[in-house]
Amino acid sequence: QVQLVESGGGLVQAGGSLRLSCAASTQTFMSYDLGWFRQAPGKEREFVASINWSGGQTDYVDSVKGRFEISRDNRRDTLYLQMNNLKREDTAVYYCAAATADLRATGPNRIRYWGQGTQVTVSS
């Protein structure tokens, strides 16, 4: 079992930065690949970024490459997403996710563990 709690969302102007955190409650944190998905109003939930158990491998959707950075602290059982140069199209609810397989390949419909989501709103 994994419980995930996100924090750090908010309202920011275009070009600004936010850092999302996801605290995990599990005794097997390092067993999981972790990642972030987002869902804008009227759209499907989409993959944003993922990181493997050791932090040695990361993956990003093309639209955030060079602007977002995913990281994890296995001592604190916490996942992060540093978001820089935010754009209006980044506005969405951001969800933390955990799986024992590649998150992008698994897809949102088959991922078992989700956080409750945190709203990110980017204004012009």
Description:
- By secondary structure, the chain is mostly beta strands.
- 3% of the residues lie in helices and 49% in strands.
- The chain contains one helix and eleven strands; from the N terminus they run βββββββββαββ.
- Strands 2, 4, 5, 6, 9, 10 and 11 form a seven-stranded mixed beta sheet that branches. Strands 1-3-8-7 form a four-stranded antiparallel beta sheet, with no helix packed on it.
- The longest helix is centred in the last third of the chain and has 4 residues, at 103-106.
Multimer state:
single chain
Taken from the alpha-carbon principal axes, the silhouette is: globular
Low-confidence stretches: none
Give the N-terminus to C-terminus distance in angstroms: 40 Å
CA gyration radius, whole angstroms: 13 Å
Average pLDDT over all residues? 96
The number of distinct helices, counting runs of at least 4 residues, comes to 1
What's the story with the biggest beta sheet?
Answer: 7 strands, mixed
Order of secondary-structure elements: EEEEEEEEEHEE
Number of strands: 11
Strand-residue proportion: over 45%
Q: What level of helicity do the residues show?
A: under 10%
